[in-house]
Write a sequence for this structure.
């Protein structure tokens, strides 16, 4: 769907998209990725699920395989501890939609090896991303900056503004998307779980509505 939209907007030709999709092959078996050089996990934001996936990857992937997680806020050190190779574990947070957004947060965990960091920074550039190296902290860089921005947008709704007024105003100011549209695209449930996991999820009108 994202690629179809990109073709409609002229970002890619239909032939380019056909070529992209031709590079993808699917599988439901972990053993089929045992020989790859890097794995990027992108399951939903649940620590128990991510640790289970990483334990399985650790069991089947070759020793020098880089294991990356696409988490937007979870503790990379805790995920790495589910493996026998914490030096090969790194964060790789792609912003949505990943085929359009250039920013890539590369998250260095406490035991991530330097060569893994260098390799992933270069990989990011190879696939046309702008990598930003960050440490482990809740929300890393992008979501920490967006937190206050999104909160003010939500307060405007509670004070009577419409979603269209909020988003249109910010787009007129120069933003590619308004904060509420960004929240919808990223997933309101993800933001809620992030606040809940920090113990700061208020029983607001907005979250009750969710």
């Amino acid at each position: 769907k994202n690629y179809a939209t990109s073709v409609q907007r002229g970002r890619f030709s239909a032939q380019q998209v056909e070529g992209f999709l031709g590079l993808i092959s699917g599988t439901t078996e972990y053993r089929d990725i045992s020989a790859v050089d890097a794995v990027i996990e992108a399951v939903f934001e649940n620590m128990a699920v991510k640790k289970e996936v990483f334990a399985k990857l650790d069991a089947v992937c070759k020793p020098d395989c880089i294991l990356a997680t696409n988490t937007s806020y979870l503790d990379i050190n805790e995920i790495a501890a589910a493996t026998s190779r914490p030096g090969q574990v790194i964060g790789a947070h792609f912003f949505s939609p990943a085929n359009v957004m250039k920013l890539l947060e590369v998250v260095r965990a406490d035991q991530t090896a330097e060569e893994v960091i260098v390799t992933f920074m270069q990989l990011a550039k190879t696939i046309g991303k702008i990598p930003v190296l960050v440490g482990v902290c809740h929300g890393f860089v992008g979501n920490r900056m967006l937190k206050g921005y999104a909160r003010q947008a939500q307060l405007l709704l509670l004070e009577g503004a419409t979603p269209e007024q909020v988003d249109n105003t910010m787009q007129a100011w120069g933003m590619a998307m308004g904060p509420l549209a960004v929240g919808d695209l990223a997933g309101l449930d993800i933001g809620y779980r992030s606040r809940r996991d920090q113990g700061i999820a208020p029983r607001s009108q907005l979250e009750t509505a969710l």
Summary: The chain has a mean pLDDT of 90. The two ends are 25 Å apart (CA to CA). The CA atoms of residues 148 and 159 lie 17 Å apart. The beta strands are 38-41, 66-69, 89-94, 103-108, 130-135.
